[in-house]
Amino acid sequence: MVDFWVFGYGSLMWRPGFAHTETLRGRLHGFRRSLCVRSHVHRGTPSRPGLVLGLDRGGSCVGLAFRVPGELRDEVVAYLRGREMVTSVYLERTLAVRLATGETVMALCYIVDRAHGQYAGRLSTAEAAAAVRGAVGQSGRNEDYVASTVQHLRALRIRDDWLEEVAALAGP
Fold first, then answer.
1. pTM of this prediction?
2. Where are the domains of the chain?
3. CB 60 within 8 A of CB 153
4. From the CB of residue 1, how many other CB atoms can be counted at a distance below 10 Å?
5. How distant, in Å, are the alpha carbons of 54, 88, 92, 110 from that of 85?
6. Which of 141, 40, 35 is nearest to 86 (CA)?
7. For domain 4-121, which architecture applies?
8. Which among 84, 97, 132, 166 is placed 20 to 30 Å from 75, CA to CA?
9. How many C-beta atoms surround the C-beta of residue 73 within 10 A?
10. Where in the sequence numbering do the catalytic residues fall?
């Protein structure tokens, strides 16, 4: 069986949760990391939704690509679908990711479904910070989610100016 790649842009980068044999920095063109998914459970409630990350159209996104042994395909894809597709807000796609080595690979990606009711649209940093500030769900405060994401990205030496500004505006 042929190995395959999975692209992570958020928590998959520091908590993939699946077996892999290689991890490389990669860039996905045509999509950007964005707080564009309204969270009604983990980082908010139906009456006060928070925001979580999605890959939305436009720009590019630096993340990590994980090489997965082909014999684990069914197991890993089932795990990812269980993790990412709970409310069907993401679409599973195989897209070209350019690795730090210069090689381009096809990688499994989860992009936001713009037609889904949880899609928040393209928000300004002020709008995103206002949605994040004060939202709390089963997994905790939305501000903590955003701050932790920024800290993890910085630890991986990945800058995301938009997300960093949202974190600063949302405050502690």
1. 0.93
2. 4-121
3. no
4. 9
5. 12, 5, 9, 9
6. 40
7. Roll (3.10)
8. 97
9. 15
10. 84
